[in-house]
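ok new one. same drill as before - structure tokens go in, u give me an amino acid for every spot. 179 of them this time. try not to just spam alanines like last time pls lmao
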């Protein structure tokens, strides 16, 4: 059976929308969801939810800088995000999470060229205030050399910032992508 709906052009659709824009009966009701009155559930504060939030934070910042970045769901070889370089080479990112602490307990990462570790630090929540997380960006090879030389299993984010000028060092990834 054939449908007898008329296919409108973009100009016809726009004209119809403009003609009915002041008529409330022509539009559907907008769903309004009130803000939550209860505190955030404990399950939202679990590590896996913060890990996901950290990955999307990094991804959104990279997109805001105009980079073509994609989230890797399978996480092969400690790659959470791939950034397509202008010359076709990819830059990879391993996202780590720190919650309410000023120290990163070093966990597994793969040092190699064109690979960065981004440590996203969530501050502990005070009252109802949620702050934007801080990001510390370091080339994975440089980070491995530093940790091995000093035999560190944990590193202060302040030390990371001093040694590598890592706080919000997005320029490292941007310039690598442009090369």
């Amino acid at each position: 059976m054939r449908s007898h709906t008329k296919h409108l052009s973009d100009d016809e659709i726009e004209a119809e929308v403009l003609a009915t824009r002041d008529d409330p009966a022509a539009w559907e009701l907008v769903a309004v969801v009130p803000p939550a009155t209860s505190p955030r559930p404990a399950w939202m504060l679990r590590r896996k939810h913060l890990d996901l939030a950290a990955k999307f934070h990094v991804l959104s910042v990279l997109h805001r800088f105009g980079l073509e970045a994609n989230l890797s769901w399978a996480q092969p070889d400690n790659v959470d995000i791939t950034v397509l370089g202008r010359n076709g080479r990819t830059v990879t990112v391993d996202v780590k999470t720190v919650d309410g602490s000023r120290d990163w307990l070093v966990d597994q990462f793969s040092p190699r060229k064109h690979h960065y570790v981004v440590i996203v630090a969530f501050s502990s929540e005070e009252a109802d205030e949620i702050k934007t997380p801080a990001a510390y960006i370091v080339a994975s090879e440089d980070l491995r050399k530093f940790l091995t030389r000093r035999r560190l299993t944990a590193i202060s984010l302040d030390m990371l910032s001093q040694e590598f000028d890592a706080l919000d060092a997005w320029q490292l990834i941007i310039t690598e992508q442009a090369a």
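Strands lie at 69-71, 81-84, 90-99, 103-105, 115-122, 134-139, 154-156. and btw The chain has one domain: 42-178.
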